[in-house]
Amino acid sequence: QQQQQQQHSASATSDDSPSGICQDLRSDAINDDHILLHVADLTNEEQVEYMVQTIVERWGGIDVLINNAGASQATKAPSDAMVTLDLERLLQINVVAVQRVTSAVVRRAMRPQADKVTNNNSKNNNSKNN
């Protein structure tokens, strides 16, 4: 019951931004060496490279990469009415960011014996193993 109260109070006072959520999770996992929380804009190549570098420095590499892209159209519209900036945002998150992360991990962090990448689509949540 005390743990439930702590979780409730943390979520009631938390900042809903990625950094705020990460800070809440860090406070819960402060003594756990098996958890690394890192906020990164996956559309930013430098942040992706830094994230992968941080993981390599902490654990020496990655056994499994699970990409879980999650953006959708801000406003639903047919293709001929879709705002180009909305489309570019979707492509940056759902396609380019997935490729950017996969490339950085495979180049710098994927352990040779692992070689496992799973891509989840935010729409149908199907998995495909490469």
Order of helices and strands: HHHEHEE
Report low-confidence residues grouped into runs of 5 or more. 1-13, 124-130
How can the largest sheet be summarized? 3 strands, mixed
Give me the secondary-structure category.
mainly alpha
Strand content: 5-15%
Shape: globular
Cα-to-Cα separation, first versus last residue: 43 Å
Q: Mean pLDDT score, rounded?
A: 75
DSSP E strands, number: 3
Q: Radius of gyration, rounded?
A: 18 Å
Task: Give the helix tally.
Answer: 4
The neighbouring-strand order within the major sheet is: 1-2-3
| Helix percentage range | 40-55%
Provide an overview of this structure:
The protein has 130 residues and is mainly alpha-helical. Helix content is 48%, strand content 10%. It is built from 4 helices and 3 strands. It has helices spanning 2-13, 18-28, 45-59, 84-108, and strands spanning 64-68, 116-120, 127-129. The protein has a 3-stranded mixed β-sheet, with helices on one face. A hairpin with a 6-residue loop joins strand 2 and strand 3. Helix 3 runs parallel beside helix 4 (84-108).
